[in-house]
Amino acid sequence: MEIEKIKYTGKVKEISIGKEGKAITVGGENSYPFYLFEGEMPHKPKIAMEVYDSAPEEWAEAALEPFKDVSGDPAAWAKKCVEECGADAIALRLASTDPNTKNTSPEQAVEVVKKVAEAINVPLIVLGSGNAEKNTAVLRKVAEECDGLNLTLGPVEESNYKQIGAAAIGFKHTIIANTPIDINLAKELNVLLGNLGVPDGSILMDPTTGALGYGMEYTYSVMERDRMAALTQEDEKLQFPMLNDIGTEVWKIKEAKIPEKEEPKLGDAKKRGILIEAVTAVSFLLAGSDILVMRHPEAVKLVRSIIEDLTAT
Amino acid sequence: MALTGIEIYKKLPKTNCKECGVPTCMAFAMKLAAGQAELSACPHVSEEARAELDEASAPPIRSVTIGKGDRGLKVGGEIVMFRHEKTFYNPPGLAVLVTDEMDSAEVDRRLKSFKELEYDRVGLLLRADLVACKSTSGDAGKFEALVKKVQSEVEGGLILISEDAGVMEAGLKVSADNNPLIYAATSDNADAFAKLAKDNTCPLAARGKDLNELVELTQKLTGAGLKDIVIDSGARGLRQAFQDQIVIRRKAIQSKFQPLGFPTITFPCEMTDDPMKETLIASTFIAKYGGIIVLSDLNGHSLFPLLLERMNIFTDPQRPMATTAGIYEINNPDENSPVLITSNFSLTYFIVSGEIDSSRVPTWLLVFDTEGLSVLTGWAAGKFVGDAIGPWVKKCGITDKVKRLKLIIPGVAAAISGELEEELPDWEISIGPREAAHLGAFLKQL
User: With contacts defined as CB-CB under 8 Å, which chain A residues touch B312?
Assistant: First the structure.
């Protein structure tokens, strides 16, 4: 029986992130995700593990437990993720810079970034807080002060792309272009970044990640549409690798935190949290994710084994 | 090639008799064209027209029903490759496995889980659908006893698993009325199994060693007059099984290749020994084209995430999801608790109620009917505005529940505070945070 193959006319750009010697490459696929009977995926999707810049306060017990010994020390935490969990990259979240929490300064953020970068031999992704205005000042400062570290910085939005983008160009960092679950806005921001002078090799797309049961399907379909446009409609401005920020989104939903005692029908709280994270991650892998930012070591392990099985030869 | 609605309409009786359940022949023709109806619903179409229309009107993937009545499960019937191209119609059935050599306490535990693990979410009842009864002993009597037991204890459809016609016959003897899925016809037993399916008018699953063998097998079965077929490509490694799902869907939908135009059945329970990993394998088949997914066991911690994924993927992207409007009590509020208002877009409701819930602050949440639009979109569309919200707040019943009339509106709708003050002169209108994520901190400060 003959299998009709799709004629793909486009390809996702191959992008290297991280410092020379520590870099990894993502993207390069020329078919829908894992459709390996008609295309290639030269670089398997990578998993970045998230590290918070200070001890997290409201994490679910199950998510905090593996990092209890290192949770106040981002460098040690990052090291543990790399050495014990085999993280492909570290995603350092500058949560305490948020004016609604500790409101730490851009200078303090720079200090943490440098410490973590020094402790690891994998690429460092630096994520701001939920406050776009503060992120502008923080990520710009980080970009300027961390010359030579080849960081990956995000989320960069339409409201702050100029300031962060300019600093990223000057100091050779990669940008995570974040738009609110919309293919046209995603394309538009990529065009704006291009016009500003950000090289194609320095852009990743973040479609905004919805958690399982909380809008996952919106992200899922926008990603499928992004990939369709990139691969079959030669839409060059959408041919960038995609990143999904999963850990923080899924572990904040009620069902990932609620103890079994309160909701016996939801089963074991730890396994449930891990599976909610892992099922969300697998869904986005199938929609085209190239980098998954994840939290729980067990979820990371499970998702990695699914990537291996889907690409097994 | 598929016909358009107009082309189909020309061949219909054009009497608008409504017996098909649709008001006009034209509307029925449109539904046929979209694959949302079957020609058999029309009692008056001529034989000649039927022959012409049959091929064109059947959805490229046949829909097959397993079980009966309320718990009958319809699978297949899909018409697109990607959900954004239209929608996916029939969520895959989730099945739990029991065997005739399993300890009876273990069978009881699984059946109990099957009955108990139900979740109510935005008016949807989420639960597993089928029980797969497998003969591992090869003994007809044991199998019959198991099927009888399962059928008497649970509602919901059955899958009978054996490749021995004698054993299968024993299982069917006690369950055929319930329309179980017979699994499976293979190239070795096809004739006997085709006969069993025909004699009992039950749907039949076919398993090939690979897609080529499967195609030969379904051609043989359809040649024998069978229509309700479910297919298994036989692959048990994830890469091949995933590829087969895609190839089957593509062949059926894009090439209208009828030998593969059937819903699939997949077996994560046979693909790994690790229950956590099994859940992830199942999750790939929910996203990519599984018709039935057989699990080795049911636990809340693994079933619930799969049910959420299934709900998400099979949500109609053409229609916003809405929550019932009304007053929601969160964390046991009393007459002094704050009153918040938001829109009835499900996602908004989930996120807002989740944040309030985790803040532990007792709160009244008013969910206002914006026809499923978010707060900002609802405002822009003239639905989340003062002269609509005001009268509703007055009559929704909240004034009987609280002493202090203070209404907190979403930060993104700050512009309506003036209109609301006019509409609700007895109320103090206050502006909450723009982002739900900041609700916890906001509520704690009140």
Answer: 212-213, 215-217, 220, 283
